[in-house]
Amino acid sequence: MSRKRTLVSLRKHTTFHEANTCEWKPGDVVIHDADAKRPDMLMVILGRSRAGVYRTRYLFPSEQPKNWRKKIWRNTIESLHDPRRFGITLRDNPEAPLTLAAIRESTFALNNAERTARGIPGDTSASPHDDSQANR
Predict the structure, then answer these.
(1) Is there a domain that residue 95 lies in?
(2) Number of domains in the chain
(3) Distances (CA, A) of 32 to 4, 12, 75, 86, 119
(4) CATH code of residue 32
(5) Mean pLDDT, the chain, as a whole number?
(6) What angle do CA 17, 23, 26 make, to 5 degrees?
(7) End-to-end Cα, the chain, rounded Å
């Protein structure tokens, strides 16, 4: 066995934390074993091949180095962990699983709460240009 093949084999199966066994679905949010355990390093699952290799992309590409922003990463199940394991949770519901939909919903709720706290009207069904009073 050549030296190069040995290094590739070791790198493929070495993890820093206990290997993950949880199956992921498209839209689930994970964090890679070798990444810093910060919210800007979260990845979203795009899909899975028949061989079990997951296609992932960083959730916040603008926070990544320029050459990583559009890259689709291929990762094995062992290296993709639940972010809650490292203390990365939603503010309003720390027990909820992290999914792209949950993050969007939480962000929307947070934005509405911030708007209300500042006295800015939230989304209303009435038109902002109500002319019923204008013609008096």
Answers:
(1) no
(2) 1
(3) 24, 13, 8, 11, 40
(4) 2.30.30
(5) 74
(6) 115
(7) 89
Q: Give the number of other CB atoms < 10 A from CB of residue 79.
A: 23
pLDDT in tens, 30-50: 999 999 888 889 999 999 999
Task: Give the contacts of 45 (CB within 8 A, at least 6 positions apart).
Answer: 24, 25, 26, 27, 28, 29, 30, 54, 55, 56, 80
In a domain, 110, yes or no: no
Is a pLDDT exceeding 80 seen at residue 97?
Answer: no
Q: What is the average per-residue pLDDT within 104-116? A: 60
Q: Is the dihedral of CA 118, 123, 126, 130 positive or negative?
A: positive
Q: What is the pLDDT of residue 21?
A: 84
What is the pLDDT at residue 43? 92
Whether residue 53 lies inside any domain: the answer is yes
pLDDT greater than 60 at residue 25: yes
| Residue 74 β-bridge partners | 55
* DSSP-derived 3-state class of residue 82: coil
In a domain, 130, yes or no: no
Q: Domain of residue 70: give its range.
A: 16-88
